From TrEMBL:
<protein>
    <submittedName>
        <fullName>Acetyltransferase</fullName>
    </submittedName>
</protein>
<dbReference type="InterPro" id="IPR016181">
    <property type="entry name" value="Acyl_CoA_acyltransferase"/>
</dbReference>
<dbReference type="GO" id="GO:0016747">
    <property type="term" value="F:acyltransferase activity, transferring groups other than amino-acyl groups"/>
</dbReference>
<dbReference type="InterPro" id="IPR000182">
    <property type="entry name" value="GNAT_dom"/>
</dbReference>
<dbReference type="Pfam" id="PF13302">
    <property type="entry name" value="Acetyltransf_3"/>
</dbReference>
<feature type="domain" description="N-acetyltransferase">
    <location>
        <begin position="22"/>
        <end position="176"/>
    </location>
</feature>
<keyword id="KW-0808">Transferase</keyword>
């Protein structure tokens, strides 16, 4: 039974999203999979940007179409994490970033939520007709590597990029169809 569902951000989630950002700031952590929530001037500007991020004609700065989701609990709609799905890869994402970025708030970690979120994101990738999904993580991010492996990720390569060892995992969605 799924504990989480992925929903599109709406104005009703403003307080939850700002609280999510505040929790990452308190722990001085990077927010992955949030499409820039950490550095926007306002929630409204972020919401407008992500609502247009799947439209090719709205993209600039070498961006690709993407969809950002909130991972909320099925019963209470409590914001657990965020997921950003890139519909295709460009040169930057082929190196660092991949098709999916995600994060779980610190207060909700080590409960299996990341694995569930990635699984839900992979279902979204299937509906976008992405046959093979690239998911990357820093080599020292053991929790993220475990999450990817729990979702059938196969390590393809590890390499140094801008001073950090990056691991590339591929998940073949054609086998799970």
């Amino acid at each position: 039974m799924e504990r989480l569902k992925l929903v599109l951000p709406t104005p009703e989630y403003k307080a939850a999203c700002l609280d999510y950002r505040k929790e990452f700031e308190q722990f001085n952590e990077v927010m992955h999979g949030t499409a820039g929530l950490s550095h926007v001037e306002s929630f409204e500007a972020w919401l407008k940007d992500i609502q247009n991020s799947y439209l090719e004609e709205e993209l600039t700065d070498d961006r690709v179409p993407a969809t950002t989701y909130l991972a909320v609990t099925v019963d209470t709609h409590h914001l657990i994490g965020m997921v950003n799905i890139r519909h295709r890869l460009n040169d930057v994402l082929k190196t660092s970033g991949g098709h999916i970025g995600y994060s779980v708030r610190a207060s909700e970690r080590q409960r299996g939520y990341a694995t569930e979120m990635l699984g839900l994101a992979l279902k979204k990738c299937q509906s976008l007709h992405i046959p093979r999904v690239l998911v990357t993580c820093d080599q020292d991010n053991i929790a993220s590597a475990k999450t990817i492996k729990n979702n059938h990720g196969q390590l393809d390569q590890a390499f140094m990029h801008e001073g950090t060892m990056i691991e590339h995992y591929w998940i073949d969605l054609t086998e799970e169809a």
